[in-house]
Amino acid sequence: MRKEGQAPKIDLDTENKQKKNPIHKEEKRLNTQRSKRKNMAYNKNQLYKDLLIKHYSNIWGKKFRERTWDRGPMKGLSSDFSILEFEPSLNRNMWTYSTCGMSTFTHIRPIELHVFSSIQDDSILELLTSVSYYHNVDDNLDLGHTVNFGRSWQDSSTCSYGLISLPYLDGPDLEIFNPSKEGLKIVHCYWLIPITEAELEFKKQFGLETLEERFDETQFNYVNPQRESVV
Fold it and tell me: Which of 60, 76, 186 shows the shortest CA–CA distance to 131?
């Protein structure tokens, strides 16, 4: 019992707790919301990736390895991003490297890219990772665009650029990946064809269709890094 004239006893810890509790509750609520949003984004990214792998496997078979290139800038890419390395098959005597998660459900026009190779080649992991990084950080890529590899495609090849083309070898079955039933956007799977600087300049001057006609006329070997330019 407090005597008259005696200052009231204040429990500072209790008072501070009472003042802090509303803030703590709000912080807890916000953290819970952030966690839910993060989990939803992760689940959506994982669903996208699982469905894309199934889509690829329906075309190229189930003999593949999931690879990553963990050197250089990777912050602009989803943590789920990887590259699938498909082995040669009876029907196709070459390696296939395809991006898996190059685009996400946030892209307006999501795309994925693949490259063919006559040999198993880890340098293609770096190449596709770099192109995917550019797609996410600098400028969204699309059909008909070209990218500068910044180096030879393989060995001392004069092909140091990549042309984003329709997947003529596999057709619409590969090109159109439609996970719309899962609430995701349609994705276009395109072929990244290594080209020379001369072919790039030819495309700029005469257009994509004319360059592709040259490819058909010459029956160029797209997996030969030492091939001559078609122009």
Answer: 76
